[in-house]
């Protein structure tokens, strides 16, 4: 999958988007319920869709949507870095060997001692 490239200026990004306005719901009182202050932006080249109805102003909601589109694109562009396998350090190898020797000695002590039959 290729990376998503967005224009750096808000005006150019807005030109690539379809803007839909609608009446928002929730807190904000009667002013919010009577005006088309909520905004939905759809970035046409990528299909990213975001909405904002947090503010009472359509302009502020539009700015919020633009920042949400940038965040979403950055999230989609993120690729997990490849894991670089590292060598086990000598100190860890020695520690493991010591632990193994200790365990084997423990097991040897569990066995019944050999009898000398004459």
TrEMBL record:
Question: What family does this chain come from, according to its entry?
Answer: Belongs to the prokaryotic/mitochondrial release factor family.
Q: What is this protein called?
A: Peptide chain release factor 1
Task: Give the Basic residues compositional bias ranges.
Answer: 79-100, 107-118
What is the organism field in this record?
Answer: Candidatus Criblamydia sequanensis CRIB-18
What InterPro entries does its record include?
Answer: Pep_chain_release_fac_I (IPR000352), Pep_chain_release_fac_I_sf (IPR045853), Prokaryotic/Mito_RF (IPR050057)
> Which GO molecular function annotations are given, in alphabetical order?
translation release factor activity
Q: What Pfam families does the database record attribute to this sequence?
A: RF-1 (PF00472)
Region Disordered: list its residue ranges.
79-118
Annotated Prokaryotic-type class I peptide chain release factors domain ranges read 16-110
């Amino acid at each position: 999958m290729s990376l998503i490239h967005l224009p750096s200026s808000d005006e150019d990004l807005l030109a690539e988007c379809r803007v839909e306005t609608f009446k928002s719901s929730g807190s904000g009182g009667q002013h919010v319920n009577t005006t088309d202050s909520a905004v939905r932006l759809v970035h046409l080249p990528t299909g990213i869709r975001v909405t904002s109805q947090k503010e009472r102003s359509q302009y502020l909601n539009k700015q919020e949507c633009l920042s949400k589109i940038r965040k979403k694109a950055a999230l989609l562009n993120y690729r997990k870095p490849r894991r670089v396998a590292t060598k086990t350090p000598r100190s860890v190898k020695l520690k493991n060997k010591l632990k193994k020797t200790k365990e084997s000695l423990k097991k040897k002590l569990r066995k019944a001692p050999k009898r000398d039959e004459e």
